[in-house]
Specification:
Distance between the termini: 57 Å
Number of helices: 6
Length: 612
């Protein structure tokens, strides 16, 4: 790629200490008009779009947010580097979204290009990292005409060390993206033709872009684990290039403002925690961590902030012989919604951090103790909010690729045939998700497959997942073709919950209803589209009283199933999404169909342990 020269539109300055404010020209940017918006979306501007630090469990002080207006253009896939740009796009919102200011669908035959200028003062002995929280789906990045990296996968963060490509003053960043939204590509609920349970596709940058400056010797990662008997936090720090002779890492744990433990060394560090406060939905206590890299003279050369929740996930049989979930040694019934994480104005991108946490606060106030994050990986701050308020998470892998015939819980299932190359990419994306989210105490279950979507090599995937993270439970396939691997047997039933309890094949698995409900209720003035099919499972009720009666009937049936051995229920769903109007809230989050306090009261019939 040849270097491009152009007049500056947006300028960022990164220095080792002082980070100067962003200055925008008068571009006339606005959100795409005449589209459904949330109250948070209406407040978004190029100056306030996603300003929060994006990586709460590995936080440094010296960073710079690059969200805001970038130049963009769309070309054919075989086109050379553009010399003309079609306008501005608001990063981090996908090009198809209202909040991007573009609202244009990217086709599989096209390429999406971004351009930004960053004014830098590189300092000798320091490194500059360019971080992308998520770009859908294949991306290439250049800095000052030099290629700095490529990435495949639309759902997890990646970073490039761009130090060698930098110069004093203005530095040009170019990003090129392709997004097929089909084939073996993992895409979740995205589709080229939205309808039913499939939604508007998302292309390009859809989470925060940011720079951080680090010392040449710096902490690259840390693996955090915990134990409850005796209580301890274990930290396995990873240093870029490995620890050198004389270097070591020091970790300090605090609760509130009080330091409770410290340790230093060259391997995994163990902090014994006296009188530990264990993490649970009822008591989501978090310990603050400070990680420091010390050179051979004992000087601190890098500092990172993190946190941990001390908790233990498991299973045990109850008096009737049914396997039940446990948290910190106590039986707990998992009760929560299917949560798609879609927004009318941002699509996969919440309009703001406040909007994202508002959904979670509503669920917590409604008496749920968990949620199933459905076919989506959220921004990393989402998991921080779940950790902070105490919501357990079942985390799905994003789906895609060939699917077998869906036989649900019947014997003798068949897997789809996948090539070695496609499977390797699928597994790489699963591993990347688990690596990025492994330290979140709220995540208690991994869900590699949903129904039969892209289900392949099930036994192999299940065994790999269990071995890779033995600290959590594995629901190998929620509602899909059952194979005897993992910890959970999961059936989907609509509209009312059910499970083949008589089948002895499930005796050694925790039995759950991973989806049910989906009771629809349309709210006039809050529909995504009046011309498309607005639907819910089991048909639409004649009025709100019937809607509530259907919800209560499903709850009562779930309570009966719980007494017979069911250990979790997942209700579809948190919000309406496009033509699906089966949410507890409307898609724009303006109307809560049943107040949170009333829901919490109704949910008491599922037993007191949902409040543990």
């Amino acid at each position: 790629m040849s270097k491009i020269t152009f007049p500056l539109k947006s300028v960022f300055i990164l220095a080792s200490i002082s980070l100067l404010a962003t200055a925008y020209a008068d571009t006339g940017w606005q959100a795409v008009p005449d589209k459904m918006m949330t109250r948070w979306g209406r407040q978004v501007t190029p100056d306030n779009a996603w300003r929060e630090y994006p990586r709460p469990q590995f936080e440094r002080s010296n960073w710079k947010n690059l969200n805001g207006l970038w130049d963009y253009t769309i070309t054919t896939k075989d086109a050379a580097t553009p010399t003309l740009w079609q306008g501005n796009i608001l990063v981090p919102f996908a090009v198809e979204s209202t909040l991007s200011g573009v609202g244009r669908l990217l086709t599989p035959e096209q390429a999406l290009w971004y351009r930004q200028t960053v004014k830098l003062k590189p300092e000798t002995g320091r490194r500059t990292l360019l971080n992308f929280e998520a770009v859908d789906y294949r991306s290439q990045v250049w800095v000052n005409g030099q290629p700095v990296g490529e990435h495949i996968g639309g759902n997890t963060p990646f970073a490039f060390d761009i130090t060698e490509a930098l110069k004093q003053g203005a530095n040009e960043i170019i990003v090129r993206v392709e997004d097929a939204t089909g084939g073996a590509q993992l895409r979740g609920k995205q589709t080229l033709e939205p309808k039913g349970i499939w939604y508007t596709r998302v292309s390009g940058i859809w989470q925060t872009v940011w720079l951080e400056e680090v010392s040449a010797r710096h902490l690259a990662d840390a693996i955090i684990s915990t134990a409850i008997a005796p209580a301890a936090i274990m930290i396995a720090p990873q240093v870029k290039g490995g620890l050198k002779t004389g270097e070591k890492v020091r970790v300090t744990a605090s609760l509130g403002w009080k330091k409770v433990a410290t340790a230093e060394g060259t391997g995994e560090l163990k902090l014994a925690i006296a009188d530990a406060k264990l993490w649970s939905p009822a008591h989501p206590d978090l310990y603050d961590l400070k990680l420091e890299l010390l050179d051979a003279r004992g000087k601190v050369v890098d500092t990172v902030k993190s946190y941990a929740g001390i908790r233990e996930i498991g299973t045990r049989r109850d008096a009737a012989g049914h396997l039940r979930f446990t948290l910190n040694g106590n039986e707990i019934f998992h009760w929560g919604p299917l949560d798609q994480g879609w927004w009318p104005d941002g699509l996969l991108t919440p309009p703001s951090d406040a909007a994202m946490s508002s959904d979670l606060d509503f669920l917590k106030a409604s008496g749920f103790n968990m949620l199933r994050k459905h076919i989506k990986v959220e921004p990393r701050r989402y998991y921080y909010h779940c950790d902070r308020i105490g919501l357990m998470l079942w985390q799905d892998q994003v789906s895609g690729g060939k699917s077998p015939k869906w036989t649900r819980m019947l014997p003798n299932p068949v897997d789809a045939e996948w090539s070695d190359a496609d499977h390797a990419q699928w597994l790489a994306e699963l591993k990347a998700m688990m690596d990025e989210l492994r330290n979140a105490p709220s995540i208690v279950v991994w869900v590699p497959f949903n129904e039969a979507w892209g289900q392949h090599r099930t036994l192999e995937v299940g065994r790999w997942t269990m071995a890779y993270d033995p600290s959590r439970l594995v629901n190998i396939v929620s509602g899909g073709n059952f194979w005897p691997v993992g910890h959970i047997a999961d059936d989907h039933r609509y509209p009312n919950p059910g499970f083949p309890l008589e089948d002895k094949r499930f005796a050694d698995f925790v039995k759950v209803v991973g989806e049910f409900g989906g009771h629809g209720y349309p709210v006039e003035g809050h529909l995504w589209s009046k011309t498309m099919r607005n639907w819910g499972y089991g048909g639409l009720p004649k009025d709100k009283d019937e809607y509530l009666a259907r919800y209560i009937k499903s709850l009562d049936l779930l309570a009966e199933l719980k007494a017979q051995g069911i250990s979790a229920g997942v209700y579809t769903q948190t919000t309406d999404v496009e033509g699906e109007i089966n949410g507890l809230m409307t898609y724009d989050r303006e109307v809560i169909k049943t107040p949170a306090k009333k829901l919490a009261k109704l949910h008491e019939r599922l037993g007191p342990e949902i409040k543990r």
